[in-house]
Specification:
- This protein is 84% helix and 0% strand.
- The chain is built from eight helices and no strands.
- The protein has helices at 2-18, 21-41, 47-66, 77-84, 87-117, 124-151, 157-183, 187-217.
- The chain is globular and about 55 Å long.
- It starts with a helix and ends with a helix.
Length: 218
């Protein structure tokens, strides 16, 4: 199981690196969005605005990045993978790959924000931990949605239509607790909310793991 998951993650990195334009398109989107925000606010930006713009840019870049999760397994290749890999291993490998991808994307977005808009992060450790939880929860939901989209002939509208409502509960909680990491963070006070976020990410992961085999056999 572990070997199969590792090979799936490795294969995804190799395939995506062969088509580097997907990586570069995400980087260009982040750079252009943050730079536009910089021009609009002319360096005068509050912590609340910094936080809101960060999550808006991150969630849309995450949707765009995860859309390609099953780009290489669509159509007839689903039958080939069905005979070679267990669906549970496949979805876990995809989720791990997307988690690493999204976490790197979030770090790059925060770095660009800090460079252009100023460093508003008061507690770096808390912010990085919150971003990790966000990447895990987003990757689980978006990977499953990408699988549905692949089964529907890679309809480009489905990921945005399905994922935004599913991500909304996590996004609201994330934006609130991440704002506290900008203005002043206490681990003791925010521990219950962090536990809720961790449980939401875990539930998203378990649902993707349990439901994907049924989608795979369809």
């Amino acid at each position: 199981m572990i070997e199969q998951i590792y090979q799936i993650v490795k294969l995804n990195f190799r395939l995506e690196w062969q088509e580097r334009q997907s990586y570069f398109s995400i980087l260009i989107y982040i750079l252009s969005s943050v730079y536009l925000s910089y021009l609009v606010f002319s360096e005068v930006i509050s912590a609340e605005t910094w936080n809101a713009f960060f999550w808006v840019i991150f969630i849309f870049s995450a949707v765009q990045a995860a859309y390609r999760s099953f780009h290489y397994e669509a159509d007839q290749r689903f039958l080939l993978y069905y005979g070679m890999v267990k669906p549970e291993n496949l979805v876990l490998g995809k989720i791990i790959y997307n988690f690493l991808y999204l976490y790197a994307t979030g770090l790059f977005t925060a770095l660009v924000f800090t460079f252009l808009m100023g460093n508003e992060i008061n507690s770096l450790g808390a912010f990085l931990f919150i971003l990790l939880l966000a990447s895990l929860g987003f990757s689980a939901i978006l990977t499953f949605v990408a699988g549905i989209s692949a089964k529907a002939s890679n309809n480009p509208a489905l990921p945005a239509i399905l994922s935004i409502p599913l991500l909304y509960p996590q996004l609201i909680s994330l934006s609130r607790v991440s704002l506290r990491s900008l203005t002043g963070f206490s681990w003791e006070v925010n521990a219950p909310l962090l536990i809720v976020l961790a449980l939401l990410s875990l539930v998203s992961l378990l649902l993707s793991f349990l439901l994907f085999p049924y989608l795979w056999r369809d």
